[in-house]
Design brief:
Blueprint: H1 2-32, E1 34-40, H2 50-55, E2 59-65, E3 84-85, E4 100-101, E5 119-126, E6 141-148, E7 163-176, E8 179-180, E9 206-213, H3 214-221, E10 228-232
Antiparallel strand pairs: 1-2, 3-4, 5-9, 6-7, 6-10, 7-8, 7-9
């Protein structure tokens, strides 16, 4: 009887051990199962649009072991479409809910990501004449002129002798109204289906937001918007210092003499005209 009892106890013990081992193996097998996730492959700056992060390959689909799976993981790239990064994201993070949010839910402005360390966004107001007839678009580079009213020796304004001074060459337009320039990976504004995309472009007048170093913005702030006018520059434009026009220089205009003036000879392009 003792032998039979010992055998029975041994069988029970063996069964318990087997169940325990099988349980561990089952748990290990479950934990080692690979499950889909989205992973941050490169550092992402705060305010980066989700579409840009996907197009640049900064967020990619991947798999990890179930034991490391965050409860709030995101598995669909469409879940970050139309959203922006709430904070700076470091590479190799698993993407979870809340890392990308609707722009309306955060005070982060995507335009701040376009500014260098000591630059600010500064807004001016221009009309159709000063704003190149509304032909400007975000991303354009413009020269900024300020109309300068000359004064007499007694210090009274002589409105008939107002001249223009060049404030800055090639200032970048960040936005017109609320429309910003597209960055790498973004699409320019387009119209509705079947319409001309150019029709959706913002009118280059009204409120223009400029990308300026703080000191430059301070100088601009000393000038009345009504005295400013803009000139659009081309791709091969070369900046050069331009001295102030003295009223006496306007006694003879280029079109009134064959002699070369500071402003050209007969035409703005020289005596032979545009080529």
């Amino acid at each position: 009887m003792i032998l039979i009892a010992a055998i029975a106890v041994g069988c029970i013990a063996a069964f318990v051990v087997l169940k325990y081992v099988n349980g561990i193996e089952d748990r290990e097998a479950g934990n080692s199962e690979r499950v889909p996730v989205l992973v941050v492959r490169a550092d992402i700056a705060q305010g980066t649009p989700g579409e840009q992060a996907v197009e640049q390959g900064w967020v990619v689909e991947d798999e990890i072991a179930r034991e490391f799976l965050p409860a709030t993981r995101i598995t669909d790239l469409d879940q970050i479409s139309g959203k922006i990064a709430l904070n700076n994201l470091a590479a190799n993070q698993v993407l979870v809910d809340g890392m990308f949010v609707d722009p309306a839910e955060t005070s982060v402005s995507p335009i701040t990501q376009r500014l260098e360390e000591n630059n600010v966004a500064y807004t001016i107001s221009v009309d159709d004449v000063a704003g190149v007839a509304g032909l400007l678009v975000p991303g354009d580079l413009v020269d900024i002129f300020s109309r300068d009213a000359a004064t007499t020796n007694e210090g009274t304004e002589n409105q008939g002798e107002a001249t223009a001074r060049l404030v800055f060459h090639q200032v970048r337009i960040l936005a017109i109204g609320t429309q910003t320039a597209p960055t790498a990976g973004e699409q320019a504004a387009t119209g509705a289906e079947g319409t001309d995309p150019a029709a959706a472009a913002p009118t280059g007048t009204g409120l223009l937001t400029l990308d300026l170093p703080l000191e430059a913005a301070q100088l601009m702030a000393t000038m009345a918007n009504s005295d400013l006018s803009l000139a659009l520059t081309g791709p091969d434009y070369e900046a050069a210092a331009l001295p102030k026009i003295e009223p006496g220089e306007l006694d003879v205009l280029p079109g009134e003499t064959d002699a070369r003036t500071r402003f050209g000879t007969l035409t703005p392009y020289g005596p032979d005209g545009p080529q």
